[in-house]
Amino acid sequence: MEFIADIMVGKLARYLRMAGFDVLYYNNAHDDEIIKIAAQQNRVVITRDSLMLRRKVFKNGNLKSVFVKDGMLKNQLRQIKTELGILLKPNLTRCLVCNSPLVKIGKNDVEGKVPPYVYSTHENFMYCHSCGRYYWRGTHYEYMKKFFSGI
Ligand SMILES: [Zn+2]
User: What is the C-alpha separation between 122 and 32, in angstroms, rounded?
Assistant: First the structure.
């Protein structure tokens, strides 16, 4: 299941990427663009915009959508989990910033590119070829794990 999120749910989009989901998010996309991309790529539209969902393409069931009711992130994730029956737990497979799939990278290749403390205390690293970011299971990952287990 792949998604496209509107500008009102950027944080939610990021958290779904943490769980490994492919979520497109543009902070300047208009409804028309969102709908066009969703239709082309068969993506579920995640939105807080009830006006957009009144369009024919949603009403006749050609496009799937989730209307996010709550402003709170935790409740938003709970709703998505329940409504779509998806599993939410952190997994470092997708770049949180640009949505590209991450690839494994050898420890030797990250020397000097991640903080020295991180380098000396971790063995496994992931890399985003699109934006050049490195990922590892550090304190942030532990935080994510706790956060998701409370959903
Ligand atoms: Zn990236």
Answer: 44
